[in-house]
Amino acid sequence: MKPIHLTLVCHARTEAQRVGRFALDDEPASSSIELATTARCLTAPELRARQTVEHLAATIDEGLRDCDLGTWKGRLLKQLDERELQAWLADPHATPHGGESIAALCQRVAGWMDSALGEGEWIAVTHPFVIRAAMLHALGAPLASFQRIDVLPLARVRLSHSGQWRLQLG
Question: What SMART domains does this protein map onto (predicted)?
């Protein structure tokens, strides 16, 4: 069995991140990055992910899409009902926004990781929530760990799979 090497790249900074609000699907990225690679490239369907690697011939992969935050899309964090926000932060199964729960996101990303990639080198440009979910899956970490991971714009996380997922630091 040949290994899978997956580098997850967080999209470039957005205005939503700068001002503390949840992004809209068509939220633009503030910049793009140059990646010199021979790896197969995938990107989430949202504009901010596609713009981050606009110079590459990346294939859009729906499995990399951001968490659906329902009615919270485009809203400032300080505009949210404090009790709903705290419930959502405390319970990965909560969906006060009417969208996708963190638990459902983690399940979706785990399924994608375990079925969508073939052997070889991959680069996938996606979102902080998706990268958090991938890290939990690779480490077998509990859902409660999700809110303890910060993923900054343009951060890179390297994972490999040869029988099991592993986090590679370097």
Answer: PGAM
